[in-house]
Amino acid sequence: MRPSELLHPTPQGLYCPPGDFYIDPVASVGRAVVTHGHSDHARSGHGSVLATHETIEIMATRYGEGFTEKRHPVGLGEVVTQNGVSIWLSPAGHVLGSAQAVVEYQGTRIVTTGDYKRRYDPTCASFEPVSCDVLISEATFGLPVFVHPDTAGEARKILRSIEQFPHRAHLIGAYAFGKAQRLICHLREEGYDKPIYIHGAMKRLCELYERLGVELGPLEPATVEKGKGSKERFAGEIVICPPSALQSTWARRFPEPLLSFASGWMRVRQRAKQRGIELPIIMSDHADWNELTDTVREVDPAELWVTHGREDALVRWAELEGRQARALRLVGYEEGEE
Questions:
Q1: Is residue 336 part of a domain?
Q2: CA 102, CA 87: separation in Å to the nearest integer?
Q3: What are phi and psi of 317, to 5 degrees?
Q4: CA–CA separation, 287 vs 83, rounded Å?
Q5: What is the span of the domain harbouring residue 296?
Q6: Lower CB count within 10 Å: N or C terminus of the chain?
Q7: Same domain, 68 and 91
Q8: Digits of tens for pLDDT over the chain (338 positions)?
């Protein structure tokens, strides 16, 4: 069987005809395999969803009563068969519950990485390379300019800034699922044991992380109440909020707010400047250029299919290495969760 007969792009997402299921579909389908809980990959409205136990919990928390699908939680490495097609999940290292989808049929194996990274993350299982005939790799940061710095060093930048500006509240924009919890854990590992203040939009997901065994330490609501002294108590404190809140009236309630943003896109100075970010924190949940290329070399697939980002550069790199590669050009997957 040719790989394109086992899995190919459609307007709804990657489709497996013999198994009659989609991977991370962007529209409602009968059967969905979901790699992780970010909203551009884990949409509601499908007939059934197969995903890790953690991703199922995350989807239920995010979508509430809107998550009506039949749920098939599976453990990493647990094989499920659908119409003779074997499906199993391997760690992706992206966020809690994230997984690569491995599809096997009639001697052909295709691995879809979903979003992934290779560096240490205290909140989720580390990426594990899986040998395959076809590797479908994301390419969010698929340009040589994107080489992410040491994550612990970025966390220490925040702590040094607090020492320099103890009179200012440090407001850090971080996405509510994945990035916020990872940032909190890295700060804890650098010895920060004081309460960290969180925006109300992060409360439910932080509580879920705790229930799923990820310890976040003392967290407090980032609520500035009326009355003398309420505002001043946030001086020199860390406040984590959704990126959109950084430019809101909510942010201006804090004492001389110092705006920060944790994202791989903070490597691009113009992006930081446009957002008014004083303290850019280059912290990504996606593989950088070196991680992408090292992974392709390690897995060494017969074919590389590239999607979700800077496809052309990674395809060209693969071709120069003598590899067979193509861009899938799937639509509906955004950089917003980064």
A1: no
A2: 6
A3: -60, -45
A4: 33
A5: 3-145+286-327
A6: N
A7: yes
A8: 899 999 999 999 999 999 999 999 999 999 999 999 999 999 989 999 999 999 999 999 999 887 878 999 999 999 999 999 999 999 999 999 999 999 999 999 999 999 999 999 999 999 999 999 999 999 999 999 999 999 999 999 999 999 999 999 999 999 999 999 999 999 999 999 999 999 999 999 999 999 999 999 999 999 887 665 667 889 999 999 999 999 999 999 999 999 999 999 999 989 899 889 999 999 999 999 999 999 999 999 999 999 988 899 999 999 999 999 999 988 666 654 55
Structure tokens at 224: 């500035």
Q: Could you give the strand order of the β-sheet that contains 324-327, starting from the edge strand earlier in sequence?
A: 80-82, 85-91, 99-105, 108-112, 134-139, 303-309, 324-327
Q: Is residue 337 part of a domain?
A: no
The domain that holds 187 is classified in CATH as 3.40.50
Find all residues with CB under 8 Å of 31, minimum gap 6, and list them: 19, 20, 21, 22, 46, 47, 48, 50, 82
Largest CA distance in the chain: 72
